[in-house]
Design brief:
mainly alpha; 4 helices; 78% helix; binds fe (ii) ion
C-alpha cells in the first residue's frame, strides 16, 4: 500500500495553524484507512492506524482544551464533553479490535471505523471546532 501525503480539504480548514496541522493528521489517518479498505492485505496497517489514533486524541484534545482554558472560552464544557465521547469511542474501537478473528470481521470493523472518522471530521471539526476557531480569529 502506498500512501500519498494529503492536504486537509478546505471545508475542514479553520484558520489556526496548529489546530489545522493536527486535524491534517486525523485526515491523513482517514485516508490511510480508506486505502486499507481497498486493499486489506496487511492487518498490521489497521493496528497502526488505531494506535496512532489513540495517541492522537490525547495530544490533540489536550492541546485544544488547554487553549480554550487559557482563553476562557465560554463553551469549553460542551466542547470537552464531545472530546470525551470521541475518546471513549476510540478506546472502545481499540478494545474491539483485539477481539477480531478473521478478515471479514476486520473489514466490517475498518468500514465502521472509517464512518466514525468521517463523522468526526464532519460534525466535530467542521462544526464544533470551527465555532471555537471563529472566536480565536
Ligand atoms: Fe475539538
Amino acid at each position: 500500500m502506498s500512501i500519498k501525503l494529503v492536504q486537509l480539504p478546505e471545508q475542514y480548514r479553520l484558520g489556526h495553524k496548529y489546530i489545522d496541522g493536527q486535524h491534517e493528521i486525523l485526515f491523513q489517518l482517514f485516508k490511510e484507512l480508506s486505502e486499507y479498505c481497498k486493499d486489506t492485505e496487511y492487518d498490521i496497517e489497521l493496528e497502526i492506524i488505531l494506535l496512532s489514533l489513540k495517541t492522537y486524541v490525547d495530544t490533540h484534545f489536550r492541546y485544544e482544551e488547554n487553549l480554550m482554558e487559557s482563553l476562557g472560552y465560554i463553551n469549553i464544557e460542551t466542547h470537552k464533553l464531545e472530546h470525551s465521547k470521541l475518546e471513549k469511542q476510540v478506546v472502545e474501537k481499540f478494545d474491539k479490535f483485539s477481539t477480531l478473528s478473521n478478515k471479514d470481521e476486520m473489514m466490517v470493523f475498518a468500514l465502521d471505523l472509517k464512518g466514525f472518522l468521517m463523522h468526526w471530521l464532519l460534525e466535530h471539526i467542521a462544526e464544533t471546532d470551527r465555532t471555537f476557531c471563529e472566536t480565536l480569529n
